[in-house]
């Protein structure tokens, strides 16, 4: 399938922007990922607002690409003898977005292109931005901060240029932000001292630390490095928090109301990304996340909020009634009430992550310094692993005994036992090994359905098939070739009921070649597709594993960016974008394959 154009993605370690193929900045929150959006046309085209580059004569968007080994986005348009090239980047650790705009007369006559830039920030009944002009600057002040937009190399926001055939004209547009207009103006001035070349060098030096995947396929290589950079861009540098995605309420499925705010740090998502960072050689990034997670631990050893804002505090869910999605989808949510859910995998995520971090770094002193937190977390798991919960997919209406959550309780207790041995605390190692065995025994018995001949999402006869039970193999409870696991996967591989026109019937998870996360899902999900591929890697079926990897690459955008869901029939992205779940699994899948070749 031909890759679909969508949005380019750039960021600086505290916020991020989406750039449309028509040159507009269609999403930007300031001053943080989880602030109210300054521009949100990517979510609500009618009233979301954007920073647009209007050019006369009109040009047609042609292509978007990243400069090699970088996060500098190049967007090109052509028409009527004029070529427009825009290079967008956000220097890491600074507070601005830079745009280098290059106009070139490619025709045979003299052109007089009129260049206008228009900013229309989002305005709702809840949040209002005030806009004022001063010379060649535009100032925008909102509820959480302010922005300053201005150009250099051009006399004002609107200018007429005369370009002879073959002649080029370059000018800069810098958008800076801060907690006040004064700070925004100062950051704007500093923006002209950060060069494109310095930013290019920064990304290339960062990528040199990466472990290389074993592949000669340029598409796979590009997807791997792009995924690593996406994970870096989802990291909030100041605290080490890793967000799930930089957007809110992008419709997850056509015509649905699963429109959620993902601009927060989930312990689960962050843990997955930290595993990918450690596997790829980025141990500092992984450790920063674990330090952030440990700072949230409660006195009894548990974590009672599965997701938190990037600063570790605050956040409530509310609905913006005057906004709607691209096709009128509602509700549009800011904040996420799932932070008050019970999710048993929180402690297991941290403990298993610390064990894998130790295996990657062999830093015994670090683990020793965090021993008290490890001990308290393992004791919490001993006491609470048998509780019902909202589960990995955060079902709001009910609590159940989810297999995935209990598997992570097993993984956390097992990790704590291993760490105890490394620390020479053998009395704790035996205790937690026995506790892990109790968890394993219960879930292998009660999670199996004799009727369906498969492990299901949660205990009980009415539970659906769910991709998350593959964690039985990923965390060592069952071997990939165990007969019950093979039967479960065979059930998953059957066509989904909706995919064959039987919405009320039983079926599998295979939807038009992609894999859904559970029965009766509307469209496939990147993470389950790659999880099933990783299972096949472990079982030795490399051909099927690569088929599933290729499904994801075929449905990614032309920049190898992935949302949460996708539709293999159209190549459309659905859900918040880009999604950390999807990109961390690309990294882990390819490194897992490389490990098995060594």
UniProtKB/TrEMBL annotation:
Name the source organism: Moorella mulderi DSM 14980
Q: What class of enzyme is it?
A: hydrolase
The EC number(s) given in the record are: 3.2.1.28
Instruction: Name the PANTHER family on file.
Output: GLUCAN 1,4-ALPHA-GLUCOSIDASE, TREHALASE
Q: Which GO terms describe its molecular function?
A: alpha,alpha-trehalase activity
Q: Which GO terms describe its biological process?
A: carbohydrate metabolic process
The entry's protein name is Trehalase
Q: Which residues form the GH15-like domain?
A: 222-589
Q: Which UniProt keywords apply?
A: Glycosidase, Hydrolase
Give every Trehalase-like N-terminal domain span.
9-135
Q: Which Pfam families does this one have?
A: Glyco_hydro_15 (PF00723), TREH_N (PF19291)
